[in-house]
Amino acid sequence: MLLKELREKVIEIALKAQKERLIPLTMGNFSARDRRTGYICITPSGMEYDKLTAEDIVILDIEGNILDGERKPSIEQPLHCAVYRRRKDVFGISHTHSVFATAWAACNESIPVVVAELAALIGGPVECAIYKPMGSLELAETAAIRLRDRHAILLANHGVLAVGHDIDSAFANSVVVEEGAKIAFYARQIGVMRLIPEEECRSLRKISLEKYGQKNDIL
Predict the structure, then answer these.
(1) C-alpha 77 chain-centroid distance
(2) Which of 3, 58, 98, 165 has its CA 20 to 30 A from that of 184?
(3) Partners of 31 in the beta sheet?
């Protein structure tokens, strides 16, 4: 089977996201790009994650053409492909609908940096891309452009897009965004939030890239 291990990895991450309550039901979508071929393994549309097998994961090329698999790919495959085309450093994407982060997206408001982990892993505030219909080419291009060199953005009235140098780091960034969104929400209820300055965000990001982990394994 073509890219069997990577297909299985995509299912593993989808199940982890469900366990962490980052997605309800079959919502959200996940993909990984193979470093050798450049092919993209993506979750199918509307299927229950706990029933997926490797055969259900669809393989695409960078333009979104189906290369292998009998299922219909996620409706957001244009979004995944657009990000991969723009970001040569990205090899994993996690699109989730976690509650607190999506609440910020519903207000079309960026998540402010009030915790060091958000600065270190994402690189600064989690900005919000303007609303475009889900699954559309407009959403794909708007989000890919707004992402720039960051590792997560909000999609207005929709959810979260997180990326990484592999699908594990993309998932980790999804978790960090949700935690940052939750803490920022509660901090706002308590009082005036004290934001981490932009210069300090850059410093924390640099430390994360150069010193954190065993093999610089988190983006």
Answers:
(1) 13
(2) 165
(3) 42, 93
Q: What would the pLDDT profile of 162-178 be if each residue is shown by its tens digit? A: 999 999 999 999 999 99
Asked if residue 218 has pLDDT above 50, the reply is no
Question: In this structure, are residues 154 and 160 in contact, taking their beta carbons and an 8 Å threshold?
Answer: yes
What residues does each domain of the chain span? 4-211
Instruction: Judge contact between 156 and 131, C-beta under 8 A.
Output: yes
Q: What are the residue numbers of the active site?
A: 76
Half-sphere exposure of 176 (CA within 13 A, CB side): 29
Quickly name the fold that domain 4-211 has: L-fuculose-1-phosphate Aldolase (3.40.225)
Query: Which tokens sit at 65?
Result: 């053409």
Please report which helix (H) or strand (E) contains residue 103, including its range. Answer: helix 99-106
| Residues 79 and 95: beta-carbon distance below 8 Å | yes
Question: Parallel, antiparallel, or unpaired for β 152-155 and 128-129?
Answer: parallel
